[in-house]
Specification:
about 240 residues; 5-stranded mixed β-sheet
């Protein structure tokens, strides 16, 4: 989440999921609303109308944001729900992360949600979020990695896990992982083996490249777990493809 409020800079405002959900449902309309003041007792909040900016196109960003808000607000879950595209009751629509970022930058009193790289590169005023451990955390490579490291991957169904609202004092609550799908019994074992070599190289040598693009490498503990899964879960003619 990012805001455009006169006098409020990056990391100066704290919000929680229930408050953001209420803003996007139109229940909180002004930046000096008591719910926002309670979370920011030392911040001078103006009597400015809130302009929620949302993604008008279907996107994974929409999915993660609405998935998180649905966990934080039963009313949001019932009335808006979680999906790649939803019907927003209030606000201004914009297409893509770039469009949303531009709209938020141009709109006084705006709140929006963008991929981390767009907030960082456009020097937008990100907010701190109250996470599952009731700690105010900032978006960063460390807090994204903390969410991934604290997730219960071992009990997930073939690594399918949504990283919103993960436990841990340092975890950022709206984190998403990208997934690569591999056949458990590949029709071409040699080709799959070569693909796994590339993914292994990426895990062990691509971290700086990912960080340069404002993406976050997986924590080492999870990489070790994934590579162990390759040895046991990907087989051809009863033999492991990855050795």
């Amino acid at each position: 989440p990012v805001v455009h409020i006169k006098g409020v800079g990056p990391g100066q405002m704290t919000l929680d999921g229930a408050t953001i959900a209420a803003i996007y449902m139109g229940d909180i309309k002004k930046w000096n609303d008591p719910a926002i003041r309670k979370l920011n007792p030392k911040l001078a909040l103006p009597d400015t109308a809130i302009a929620p900016i949302y993604r008008s196109d279907g996107s994974g960003t929409n999915f993660l944001f609405t998935n998180y808000l649905s966990q934080q607000s039963p009313k949001f879950k019932e009335n808006i729900g979680s999906s790649t595209a939803v019907q927003w009751p209030v606000g201004i629509g914009a297409k893509g992360n770039e469009g949303l970022a531009n709209q938020a930058i141009q709109t006084d009193g705006a709140i929006g949600y963008v991929e981390f790289a767009y907030a960082k590169q456009n020097r937008m005023a990100n907010v701190l979020l109250i996470n599952k451990a009731h700690k105010a955390v900032s978006p960063s490579a460390a807090s994204f990695q903390a969410a991934a490291a604290n997730a219960d991957w071992a009990h997930s169904d073939r690594y399918y896990l949504i990283l919103t609202d993960q436990p841990g004092a340092a975890s950022w609550p709206i984190t998403g992982a990208s997934f690569i799908l591999i056949y458990g019994n590949p029709p071409n074992a040699a080709a799959t083996g070569e693909a796994l070599k590339f993914f292994s190289w990426s895990y062990h040598n691509g971290a700086k490249m990912a960080e340069a693009l404002d993406y976050v490498p997986l924590p080492a503990s999870l990489i070790k777990q994934v590579e162990q899964t390759w040895k046991t879960a990907i087989t051809a003619n009863s033999a492991p493809v990855w050795k």
